[in-house]
Design a protein that fits this description.
Strand content of chain B: 35-45%
CATH topology of one domain in chain B: outer membrane lipoprotein receptor (LolB), chain A
Number of strands of chain A: 15
Oligomer: heterodimer
Strand content of chain A: 5-15%
Largest sheet of chain B: 11 strands, antiparallel
Distance between the termini of chain B: 19 Å
Structural class of chain A: alpha+beta
Number of strands of chain B: 11
CATH architecture of one domain in chain A: Up-down Bundle
Largest sheet of chain A: 6 strands, antiparallel
Number of helices of chain B: 5
Order of helices and strands of chain B: HHEEEEEEHHEEHEEE
Radius of gyration of chain A: 35 Å
CATH superfamily of one domain in chain A: Multidrug efflux transporter AcrB transmembrane domain
Number of helices of chain A: 31
CATH class of one domain in chain A: Mainly Alpha
Strand order of the largest sheet of chain B: 6-5-4-3-2-1-11-10-9-8-7
Largest interface: A-B, 58 and 56 residues
CATH topology of one domain in chain A: Multidrug efflux transporter AcrB transmembrane fold
CATH superfamily of one domain in chain B: Lipoprotein localisation LolA/LolB/LppX
CATH architecture of one domain in chain B: Clam
Amino acid sequence: MVGSKSAMVWVGVLVVLFTLSGYHVTRNWRLQTDVLALLPQNERDPALQSLRRMASGALGRTALFVVAHEQPQTGRDATRQLGAWMTASPLFESVQWDYSQQQHAFFDLYFPLRYQILSPNIRRALDMPTGYQALLKRLQQTLYQPTSAFATRFLDQDPLLFFPALAQDWGQPSTRLYVDNGLLTGRENGRWYAIIIAQLAFNPFGTQAQIDYDAQLAKWRRDLHQAWPDIQLTSTSVARFASATRQRIHTDIARISLGSILGVVLLTLSTFHTLKHLALALLPIGAGIWSALGITLWLLGELHALTLAFGASLIGICIDYSFHYFAHHRMAASWRPQRTMQRLLPALSLGALTTVLSYLGLALTPLVGLRQIAVFASCGILVSFGTVVLCFPHALRQPHARAHQPPRLYQGAQWTIDLWNRFPMLLLTICTLGIGLGLTGLWSLRISDSPQALNALPPDMVAQDQAIRRLLGETQPQIHLIVTGDSAESALQTLENLHERLGQLPASTTAAPIQFGPVLTDFLPSMKRQKANWAATQTLLAQRQTITAELIQIGLADAPIEHFFKTLQRGPSPFLRPETWLRHDASAGLRQLWLDETDGHVSILVPVRQVHDIQLVRDVIARYNGVYYIDPIEDFTRAFKRYRQQSIHLAGGAYLLVFALLLWRYGKRGVWIMLPPLLAALITVEVLGLLGQTFHFMHGLALLLILGMGVDYTIFLAESPADDDPTTMLALALSALTTLLSFGLLSLSSQAVLQSIGLTTLIGVAAALLLAPIARYGRRSS
Amino acid sequence: MWLVMLGLMLTSAMAAESAEAPPTPCADWDHRFQQPLTHTMVPEALRRILAVHQGQGFTSRFAETKHIGLLRRPLRSTGQLVFIPRQGLYRQLNSPFQQEMVITDSAIYQRYASGATETMALAKLPAAKAFVEAFLAVFSGSWDTLHTHFHVYFAVRGSGWQLGLKPTHPMMAKLISCLVLEGEQERLLALHVQESNGDVTSDRFSDARILPESQWAAYRDRFHWPPIE
């Protein structure tokens, strides 16, 4: 018997839980929207580690802006205005738009180092015994060109034109951009555009910061349009995507919550007809979700928005225990609240246990997000269960006023039971045939571990991001190399060796095997390289006489020649160190290549423009320690494949465990009880195949939920006497309808992860409900 | 993200000191040319000259003298020029060494006697691009094209004439102070270019002739170069 003392204790527990939740929600509320936060923290995959570092570092805070207009001057004016606003805004740590001084900065930094940082062509010439002749010839050829004006300015300080050669090399990589009037510009389809690159001063996943950022961008856009109506401003950044994701998740939460609550209200009122039932129905839901919030925050420290969105669907599950009790109250001519609860308790307990176990199975996955869902759902279900079992018998003491008037749904439940009673073999045959025919769905099921199957980013934003990156010349922005080292010098040397080695790979008829974006060591060579360059220039001293004669022959005055050799004799300028380079204005726009430096471990990012022969490139990279080829699509696919295999093993193990439990409790009859959820899982996979869905690890995990809820239904039917079948079926129908509503709304989520869980569970629960009457064959004979 | 570096050459902190004073085509400009021309002020003589060249090719031998302030003596070279509209300018250097160069609005191609080639895409080199566009405009014979890139001046000197050009593009103006073309009747005799640092290049043309379109095919092979990657 569930006594009043137990109820009082439970109320006390609820008060404690509510207080705990109130404390954590008000003090520790942190809603996480970073998708990478769902990944295992200890994921050792170097690709995922590098992605996490990139997302949390400079790259994650990079924002790109494109100002476009048909008229260059208008575009320039608008760009300068926007650049000024952004520079003055606290939202940005740095804003790079004015490159007019950067050219000075490059000159200021690199000209003094012109004999230590060499163009590869110059270095190759110096490495040859008669290379000085090639340099002199090159000088002569340059002077006779119509475009010699670009080089002759350096003659007195750099008579062999080392610096112009270096600068020309920097201008070589394929890019559509160039500096014009101090702005980084380009042209496409007749429109002029300029690029502004900024670093955000805030965490892109911070909610309030996102709101402020969005508002400020909108204002700037309005102000620009007011001054220049045809100006076009587009932007992309992690913050923008995170903000869109956050807003969509909030919409999902609102839709699922409201829809589920509305469903509960309508079903409760139409079936039970009293506001008391409605108020009671909402009590375990509220208690369960509020407690789940607090406990999850307490145990895990934060809540991911996806967990919250999923949690909204718990409404449809937490109501189940209420419905079972209400159904018996509704139909009981002679109402005994405590006795009814005592009778229902084994089924309620076992049902709650299997549901909680199925959710806890998610906690065995390495994904942080799923562990949160597991804790959240388990807490919510247990608190709802406890509230119903301990409190409801004291709340519903009187019989239902309309106990003698069965609701329509009861008639439907009765009809279903009658159908199963009269045509069991026919229905079983139909089920078997249906499952047999559905096998085509099983064969046609496509499996994909690609993260693109879980891509929930707004298509227009993705298109805009791709368009902006195309303007920057990034054709394959996801692919890159990460070069690591125990020190800055070691990482830089590795990169130099690798770059050289990859540059020596034979080109196909169409292109080199790999084409890089900017390579850090072109701008920041290793100390070893700088010293070797300097040593190479010293070989010119041995040819001083010959070189001097040639230069005089060309017409150069004595002073610059003398100055040149004195510079070589004097010794090198201080070699360029990473810390100097990172602080200098010349490195603006390139600093994100220096990925991070932690505990002396350095990582360098090498963007890749195109890869034409992946295998050849990988074979080369494999020979280097600490070099990783990162293709996020490929790497996430590998990780998700691992998760999918784990999820299938987990689901399989869970089904076996539950089956073992049922066999322990019911003996051989446990087979009948296990059959409906098992068939429901099979039907679900078949239907997914017939719908053309692509199976991934989230579908595998959703099979766990089908097990939990499916066994719930069959246990109730197995535990209830035959006379109670229609009432039990009524309760199951009500439970299933709210569950179907919640997961149905979840399947409409903007987030692919939730969509797949929602759709899979929707199909599975519907099949489990329809097949649940089979479990009556597992009933103990009276 | 990386930048075009060649632009920094324009902002070099170094000031080239002239070893000796070269000729100055830009000198006494206001005295020689009264005011820049506008569309409504184009003299008849200039119209005739432009009409002869417009849409036509051009070929000539040239003898070039380049006064670079840092050099003690001028650089002298000889060669041949071929200009074909929409193809670009082909420049063959015969002395003091062999070199071929093609300048188009998208790239500069060079080939040396050794067979070595170099290509410089202009998209990434705004200064060079501006220079090339202006340079090609000189040979275009089109008033509109000239006026787009230059402030245009014109003066008649006896039987000869001078066409003075000052760049309008800021980047070009930082490099080039002025260009002066000299001619007699419809014949182009010389081109003088003065750079902003005082260096002067003078080209004297001989055996110059207009190339009508029917004769372009004979020169097409000189403009065939590998495409830019």
